[in-house]
Amino acid sequence: MSKETTAEVLVGEGPVRLELHADGVAHLRLNRPDAANGLNVELLRALHEAVLRIHGDGRVRAVLLSGEGKHFCAGGDVHTFLSKGEALPDYIRVATALLQLATAALIRLNPPVVAAVQGFAAGGGGMGLVCSSDFVVAGESTRFLAGATRVAMVPDAGVSVTLTQLVGFRRAMDILMLNPTLTAAEAKEIGLITRVVADEQLMDEAWSLARQLAAGAPAALANTKRLLWNGIGQGVEAAMPEENHIQALLSGMADAREGLSAVIEKRAPRFTGR
User: Fold this and answer.
1) How far apart are CA 37 and CA 122, in angstroms?
2) How do residues 100-126 score in pLDDT, each as one tens digit?
3) How many angstroms separate the CA atoms of 2 and 205, rounded?
């Protein structure tokens, strides 16, 4: 796997790990491989706290989100859910609230988020994290499954909105209500994910994309991301004043002048975030 040799460990133990690499890429890892990174309250709380830590660290230029082990995320931890018996609704309320906080925080992060997905991405957790990431790279053997209605529940983590935006209303209805297992190629074809690569190239490709984003103009990328997410459900004309305001703001930054100079001089830009 191609990555920086030096990294600052920000969260070094527990169900979520977080490291900041010298190139400005924060590597956020789900760390319950023995449970297929199934989401329980402990992991979800740790995930939300880690995303908030990224949010407060101005050194982060891009985020790489991955899951340890064979699977990216198999969704909610069904064994934990079943063990709660009649107390399950109370547990689900907490777990769902934490999942919503975590996925909303990913969407609201300034740095772009690249998800590297292998094995299964399933349930509200797996699909929710995929749908709330800005870029998704999947290995060719990866499978995607909504699965909520299969256990008599409904999609959460905003999937009822984000999936519709990604793949369209009719396809989202099919995915969420009939629960087909999608191949990586099918997910790419319908717009659920960004790229499909050979399994053995997954992390190299994801790291390469994260580094490419980290080398970009941070304010321009952050505001482009915000415009796109805010544009969901918004009319085109309603978005234009915000676009104009941000464009004028960014054009006064040194990064904009550097970008223009680099085009004229036919060289790679050197963005500083100023």
Assistant:
1) 10
2) 999 999 999 999 999 999 999 998 889
3) 9
Cβ–Cβ < 8 Å for 160, 139: no
Location of structure tokens 């790990």 = 17
CA 251 – CA 263 distance, rounded (Å) = 15
Residue type (1 letter), 101: L
Q: State whether the Cα torsion 193-36-49-13 is positive or negative.
A: negative
Paired with 31 in beta bridges are none
CA–CA gap between residue 154 and residue 173 (Å, rounded): 12
231, 218 contact by CB (below 8 A): no
CA–CA gap between residue 6 and residue 93 (Å, rounded): 40
Question: What digits encode the pLDDT tens for the residues 11-26?
Answer: 989 999 999 999 999 9
What token pair was written down for 17?
Answer: 């790990």
Enter the tokens of residue 183. Answer: 């191949």
Residue in this structure with the two tokens 């988020």, named with its chain if needed: 113
